[in-house]
Amino acid sequence: MKKFLSLVIALVLALGLVSMSAQAETPKYKIGILAPAVTHGWVAGVAYNAEQQAIALKDTVDYKMATSTNAEEMTAQLDDLITWGAQAIVAFPQWEGMEVPIQAAIDRGIVVVNFDIQIDAEGIYLITGDNEGMGVEGAKYIVDKIGTTGTVVALPVPTSGSVSELRMKGFLDTVKEIAPDLKVVEYATKFTREDGLKDFADILSANPQIDAVYSLDDETSIGALQAISDANRTDIKVITGGGGSQEYFKMMPENENIWIASALYSPLMVRDAVDMAVSILKGEEVEKVVTIPTTIVDRGNYEEYLDENSVY
To answer: Which of 33, 37, 208, 279 could form a disulfide bond with 284, CB atoms 3.0-4.6 angstroms apart?
Structure first.
């Protein structure tokens, strides 16, 4: 009997060791994350949420993350991730010129899930907000507040590639359709409050009458609002934005003379990009392009979107 019990115990222990060994040997998916260096609160939110989602999937994912200040640096980091053995890469290629290196990665069999930025690469996956829809809703919002005539200053950001192109397309196409007599004046700027302040101070000097501002980004809008306040201008009745800045949300009820609005474009969406990469590596079927619809936030509903835990 003792021999039998000893054999049973030995067998149980052996099976346990085999099971533990199998668990230990279960490979994790190697996922690289590429993001721009943090020059903007929204970009910080993207990098933070991508990494947090990778950490949340630690039982199935090994990850490496890199941030860059230009296309050359991001390309070098992409090469490093390939050398590391990345099976999938979640990329936020904000810099122009990433088409060729990303296509090369895809051609090597690496899954690439782009976040936010649409580029010309065959076989790429994309998680994005509805950039063109943001322009459509921005145009509708401005026309609703000021009517079908007046002067609107639009603030495109050419260096942001498809993001600016699509938001401007949605805006201009919709204005042409619903308010063809609206005068639209375009001034190129950047997605920072510093540029919004500097550039809009010049715009105010050049334009004695502005009825509304079509800004593509919350940070730019914060800078523009500072310029408007500094100049004591009272002619501007609407300013839009885009992103989901908590600071910007809190400004919405503070100025009753200006309708401050934002097309919600939360950096939380990047978590879906990480999940998509894992699903593809597991062999699951996913949509090539997932577009998250636009929501307009203003003083009427901003409280629904306040989040004390947000990093942006």
So the answer is: 279
What tokens does 204 get?
Answer: 């105010």
Residue ranges and CATH numbers for the domains of the chain are: 28-129+267-292 (3.40.50.2300), 131-264 (3.40.50.2300)
Residue range 182-211, pLDDT digits in tens = 999 999 999 999 999 999 999 999 999 999
Of 230, 221, 291, 233, the C-alpha closest to 261 is: 221
The pTM score is 0.71
